[in-house]
Specification:
The longest helix is centred in the middle third of the chain and has 29 residues. The chain has about 675 residues and is an alpha/beta fold. It contains 17 helices and 25 strands. It is about 30% helix and about 20% strand. α1 links the parallel β1 and β2. α5 runs parallel beside α8 and α8 runs antiparallel to α13. A nine-stranded parallel sheet has the order 5-4-3-2-1-9-8-7-6. It has a seven-stranded mixed sheet with strand order 11-10-12-13-19-18-17, with helices on both faces. It has a five-stranded antiparallel sheet with strand order 21-22-25-23-24. It folds into three domains: about 325 residues, TIM Barrel, CATH 3.20.20.80; about 200 residues, Class I glutamine amidotransferase (GATase) domain (Rossmann fold); about 55 residues, Immunoglobulin-like. Bound molecules: alpha-D-galactopyranose and zinc ion. Zinc ion binds next to α6. Alpha-D-galactopyranose binds next to loops.
């Protein structure tokens, strides 16, 4: 599938990063022209500006001073660079906190914060909304026809929450809209428990360590509300941009699996999804796992943007400064990190940051340009190599993976599971479980789309939904239709327990999914780390950890049974023919060995071919398809060379033929334009 370039008329892979020239105003004659030269020589074509510039752009209330940005935008244009122009809501000026204390956040323990740090504004505050919309409108008016304006970077890494009186009020309105009457809310939340019946919406307080912290339905709805607040705030602050610069795309930089925002919901409001990628590379054998973790994050961020090309908005060109041990990136890792983003559908490789500041907490965070200020650094040279290579790969721009397999990762389900007190009550390991399924599928060299319960299932051959504890409205019906129409659905233990209000389904689990799976899931055993069960399937024995569901086939066929305990002989793996399709149920948590063997057999049976055969461990393999062709990516996350079997094609960068057994050096990223369909 071919998409238009993210920035209109700029059909190349974007390369650049966060740039804070306002920190160098006093040295601008020396620094700014040098920055332009250093950027161009490193193959940089894009810089993100204005992210934390509010105090310089509006030094006093209502008094705008755009002079620094005028100059920078002109310099970018004169040098053929594009601006990812930010709205400054990520950090507010001090005068605002002083004059309007309502803009300061209040913590869950009801203490108002002092001025400081960033991401610390109340999302409900009418003053904050008014101020941000005013400056955003002024920015849009000023730069709407500027040749450097490529896109909008709305705020920075939205996150956190606010418990102030204004937010409580909005929460009440939100609840009233959702439930209509307080009686309905009480019923939905099962509030006769502990005599917690509310008499009005106004009486509902957000969860707090000094108040209600034990009502799962309240916690779930507070998370929904907070997440909706971000979408609402995004829509509010991007409205002037949309109105004044309708053709310029807007994004907000996301943070992979950040818990507080349902990114599938926020993602629907973005023109393009973007995210900040900070893998904790170790420079040793553990990097193979880091590579797979990062692969998941990229695919998730593509998923929340609707599977279109997305942007890696930030990544570190060298050590970060916030890990317990901040290691340098060993040579080769930077290229691998950049190429992996592209491999998973990113049309950009961007860094935090372009130039290191002299002061402040991030002065030792990796940057393209060091305090030494020269081209002679190792990091600058490696960034330049990435820049050169991205230039050679521009035919990839706008292409996208064509996955036949979807894997479900759902924020609301995650929130519901977090408060669910059963089994391993402090951590049901939902995210780890989805990642384990992902690693099995990717490890077999299949492209995978990450979706949530609200996404369409049509078009996929196989959909995998691990631990869908909470079924969101309409999801069970969509699964039924998908399978009836010929799809293959794979579900697991702890599925179909509760509805959207966290109320248990009556009449047996997996609730409304019972028919499609053809079974009844009666009880779930929790095993501690010393306890296991086992089962045999297709001649091999596998171990069960953590969870074992006791299920009864009601139409499904048992493919394997537990070996031990009082539920020995109960089915642990079932298959049910439903309509034209099949539904599988994996009743216990297994290791990656079973998931890999199971999916290998299933996908082969379904006639889905892997991108390459026998992919070695620690290698990430993806593809992108567009009007320019079919591109195959092979990325070695191992500190040793591996051999991969490549279908016939040419290296995209120089046209040299590749075919069959090919050696990948440690951390090498190979990009092949293949001949195949
Ligand atoms: C985040 C922020 C940046 C910077 C980096 C440091 O991603 O968006 O402003 O603080 O972290 O890693
Ligand atoms: Zn607030």
């Amino acid at each position: 599938m071919q998409y238009p370039p993210i920035m209109k008329g700029f059909p190349v892979l974007l390369h650049g990063g966060d740039y804070n020239p306002e920190q160098w105003l006093h040295m601008k004659e020396e620094i700014w022209p040098r920055d332009m030269e250093l950027a161009k020589a490193a193959g940089i074509n894009t810089l993100s500006v204005g992210i934390f510039s509010w105090a310089v752009l509006e030094p006093r209330e209502g008094e705008y001073d755009f002079s620094f940005l005028d100059e920078i935008m002109d310099m970018l244009a004169a040098n053929g660079l594009k601006a990812v122009l930010a709205t400054p809501s990520g950090a507010k000026p001090q005068w605002m906190a002083e004059k309007y204390p309502e803009t300061l956040r209040v913590d869950a323990d009801r203490r108002r914060r002092l001025y400081g740090t960033r991401h610390n504004h109340c999302l409900s505050s009418p003053v904050y909304r008014e101020k941000i919309c005013a400056i955003n409108a002024a920015l849009a008016e000023r730069y709407k026809d500027h040749p450097a304006l490529g896109m909008w970077h709305v705020s920075n890494e939205y996150g956190g929450e606010c418990h102030c009186p204004l937010c409580q009020q909005r929460f009440h309105t939100w609840l009233e809209k959702r439930y209509g009457t307080i009686d309905r809310l009480n019923a939905a939340w099962w509030n006769t428990f502990w005599s917690h019946l509310y008499t009005s919406f106004d009486a509902v307080e957000s969860p707090s360590p000094i108040g209600e912290c034990d009502n799962p339905a309240l916690s779930l709805n507070w998370r929904r509300f907070t997440s909706d607040q971000f979408r609402d705030f995004y829509e509010c602050e991007s409205a002037p941009l949309k109105a004044i610069t309708p053709g310029v795309p807007c994004t907000a930089n996301l943070m992979a699996t950040y818990e507080g925002i349902d990114y599938f919901n926020l993602g629907r409001a973005l023109d393009v999804s973007s995210w900040d990628n900070y893998p904790q590379w170790t420079g040793d054998a553990r990097d193979a796992d880091v590579l797979m973790d990062t692969a998941f994050n990229h695919d998730l961020m593509r998923g929340v943007g609707g599977q279109k090309p997305f942007m890696m908005m930030e990544s570190s060109p060298s050590a970060v400064n916030w890990q317990p041990v901040n290691r340098l990136r060993r040579p080769g890792i930077l290229m691998l990190q950049g190429m992996q983003a592209v491999a998973h559908g990113s049309d950009s490789v961007q860094y935090f940051q372009f130039r290191k500041g002299r002061g402040g907490t991030e002065k030792y965070h990796g940057a393209v340009v060091d305090h030494a200020g020269t081209k002679e650094t190792r990091v600058y040279r490696e960034v330049s190599e990435v820049g050169k290579r991205l230039g050679e790969l521009s035919a990839i721009t706008g292409s996208a993976p064509e996955s036949r397999i979807a894997l479900i990762y759902d924020w609301e389900n995650r929130w519901a599971l977090k408060t669910a007190a059963f089994g391993h009550r402090n951590n049901h390991r939902y995210e780890a479980t989805v990642r384990a399924h992902y690693c099995a599928l990717r490890g077999l060299a299949y492209d995978v789309d990450l979706i949530d319960q609200t996404c369409a299932l049509e078009g996929y051959r196989v959909v995998v939904g691990p631990m869908t504890y909470m079924l969101r409205p309409g999801f069970a019906e969509r699964v039924q239709r998908f399978v009836a129409d010929g799809g293959v659905y794979v579900g697991t233990y702890i599925s179909g327990w509760v509805d959207e209000d966290d109320k248990c389904f009556l009449g047996g689990w997996p609730g409304p999914l019972k028919d499609v799976f053809g079974l009844w899931d009666e009880e779930t055993d929790a095993l501690d780390e010393t306890q296991h069960n086992h089962f045999s399937w297709q001649g091999k024995t596998y171990r069960v950890d953590d969870y074992a569901a006791l299920i009864h086939a009601r139409g499904a066929e048992a493919l394997a049974q537990y070996d031990e305990n009082f539920y020995r002989g109960f089915p642990v793996l079932t298959r049910h023919a439903y309509g034209k399709g099949l539904a599988y149920y994996i009743a216990a948590r297994t290791g990656g060995d079973f998931l890999r063997d199971f999916f290998a057999a299933l996908l082969q049976e379904q006639g889905l071919r892997p991108l390459v055969p026998d992919l070695p461990a620690g290698v990430d393999c993806t593809s992108r398809v567009g009007s320019e062709g079919r591109f195959l990516f092979l990325l070695n996350g191992n500190p040793h060379a591996v051999t991969v079997c490549v279908p016939s094609g040419v290296r995209e960068e120089d046209g040299t033929p590749v075919r069959g057994q090919t050696e990948l050096q440690p951390w090498e990223a190979l990009v092949v334009r293949t001949d195949g369909e």
